[in-house]
Amino acid sequence: MKPSPGASPEAAPLRAERVLSGHTQGVLSVAFQARGSVLASSGEDRTVRLWRVDSGEPVATWADHSEPVVCVAFSPEGALLASASADGTVQLREVPSGRLVHGLRGHTEAVVSVAFHPSGRLLATGSADHTARLWRVDSGECVQVLRGHAGTVRCVAFSPDGAWLASGGFDKSIRLWEGDSGAAGRVLTGHAHWVFPVAFSPDGRWLGSGSADKTVRLWEVASGAELQVLQGHTREVFSLAFHPAGELLATAGYDQTVRLWELPSGRERCCLPDHEECVESVAFNSDGSLLASAGYDHQVRLWSVQPRAS
User: In the CATH hierarchy, which fold is given to the domain comprising 14-305?
Assistant: First the structure.
């Protein structure tokens, strides 16, 4: 595939549903519970907030971190929520009660990314201390320290089958590790600046990445080959998410936009400039009917995803 130049987007396949307001500073991360009834958000105001997806009503606010909460992730079954913070800790809490199950300590700098293994047995974290770590969810024990990045490990993501863990960082590289053991695999290079997000496609064949070089790149997991470069963002790309059906990719960044791309063509489907500040995070719910976006305008926005016209 060749790099895709910006295309003239057609009518947006997203319809604004509601705006969730409550955070008092920038929102850094959003995540849907697997069952789809709860959305989690976290931010610069040092809180984690839970919201009802159907009504937008707040469910709970947790304010136990001492620094900004950079990333949140639900366990596969949705019973636990992990929150990673600039205070150097990760908290595992029951949903919706908020009972603390484990406080994970070991990183020596801010923890900026977190992801659950599809089995729910392991948790991966990435940190400004240049390492990623694997933790047992049942005991809270750190079972592996992954070294190789020469800068902050800004993002971590497991493949859908759990075979691979991908990490991306400020050294401009993406590294693949065996999902269960943490053994080092191949290194993907191509970005010209920091790598902020990584995510696997629903079938696990592709890996998507976004960067401060303003591009989104798609990689073939089996070979490590770069398949496509998506160009359209005018500033850093902070977040990306594959639609569960695998036919759309959502991206967001410092240019205050959310963009949707058609796959496998790489054509830009739409560009939404509704946020008033940079957009830090996007996430689809499990059936792909909703997209959440969040950013430095202190808001979480929910969008209804319209089916592609036949």
Answer: Methylamine Dehydrogenase; Chain H (2.130.10)
